[in-house]
Amino acid sequence: MTGSLVARKRNIQCKTKVKTGCATCRIRKVKCDENKPFCQKCVDTGRTCDGYESPFRSLTGRSINNAHAGSIKSGAGLQPIRPNLTEIAPQDIDLLNRYFSTKTMFDVKLGCDEEARQILQASLTDPPIRHAVSSLRALREHLETSGDVAASFAQETPSYGYEFGLQKYCMALGGLAANLSSPGFNGLKSALLCCQIFISIEQVRGNYAAMAQHMIQGLSIMHEYWARSHFVAANKLVSAHHDQLPLLDVFIIKLFAAPCKFADPPATADISGTTVAVCVMSPHQQTVESRRLRTIAPDMRTELTRIAATTLEFLGKVSHVESAGNALQLLSEKASLLDSLESWLVDLELVLTDIRAPEPISVSFLRFFHQILKIILLGALDSSPDLYAELRTEIDRLKGVASNIDERVKAYRTWSGTSSGRGEPSKVR
């Protein structure tokens, strides 16, 4: 009898120490089969599965290896967030907002809180988004732990965190492809939210051609499914078909328009002009590049940022346009912005001609930003047959700029690896 009581106590104690599984099974103190996105035990018993922990919970005070091992095995120590909650923890929003761009490694503010909140809310019920967010977290933590982009992503034996990030990235891509096989509103929304994270993932990895491809595909989805109102004839305005789709173009502009520290000393400056966080040149080139940046980049970047801010205002008006008359007025604003972009490019070429030196990589990133702005503006309010040919031309130019940046970054990685082999530390900004 006594033995039976002891056995029962042990069973009760074991049942109360459930540290894994969905929120519903944890509350019920039963073993969960941990099936994603909803556990089969809840489904089979007719219960509502309240899901698993937030995929973007900050893991302060842990090593990256322990953090990701915990997230794979059990999620121990992570606070669960139920999908039926309407608010996401502020610390999760702040963290994702910071991880969107490598610029934030230099304490730059992006202003993407709303985008972060929308992604995190969707990640509670959308597996591809959840995998993408987990991937970005892992790769960004890997970058910050290693302290060197070239060393972190060019090493022969990547860390556990890096491999985990790539695994989650592949899962996100696969899940998204399945969702888009028969796209409805939810599938399109998932694609655009994933696209935001994919852009950030490729930026952290230093793959700018792939980043550009995600941008192009996302903007194509917005245009093809009419995320905003547009003209189909001279005076015929058609309302948006999916006016609640995430505004990827706004996110991209915010990402690139965030300030850069051109005036800072070379040891701490973000020289990219947009998103890259590493120095892609030798020490001698760094000194020459820094002088050119102080001469060229501040004025050119300030003007491009001003055009970007005006473009955001313009896109806001397009999203709320109600009549063809108002839309026609916006077309004149669009033409003015495109003229400003063209003038900016002419001025840039004149400056570079005066310097008579190879183009700094910071200027290549400004070209990238300029090209993105032009593609976004061309697609606004317009769906004419002639537009597609013009967009194809500009997209090809964007791909060319991205490929050029990729080559220069790869060249730096080669140089960095050689320098490290000689015992010289690779330079990071």
UniProtKB/TrEMBL annotation:
Gene3D superfamilies: Zn(2)-C6 fungal-type DNA-binding domain. Residues 21-49 form the Zn(2)-C6 fungal-type domain. Keywords: DNA-binding, Metal-binding, Nucleus, Transcription, Transcription regulation, Zinc. CDD domains: GAL4. It holds the Pfam family Zn_clus. GO terms for molecular function: DNA binding; DNA-binding transcription factor activity, RNA polymerase II-specific; zinc ion binding. InterPro entries: Transcr_Regulatory_Proteins (IPR052360), Zn2-C6_fun-type_DNA-bd_sf (IPR036864), Zn2Cys6_DnaBD (IPR001138). This is Zn(2)-C6 fungal-type domain-containing protein. It comes from Pseudomassariella vexata. The lineage of its organism: Eukaryota, Fungi, Dikarya, Ascomycota, Pezizomycotina.
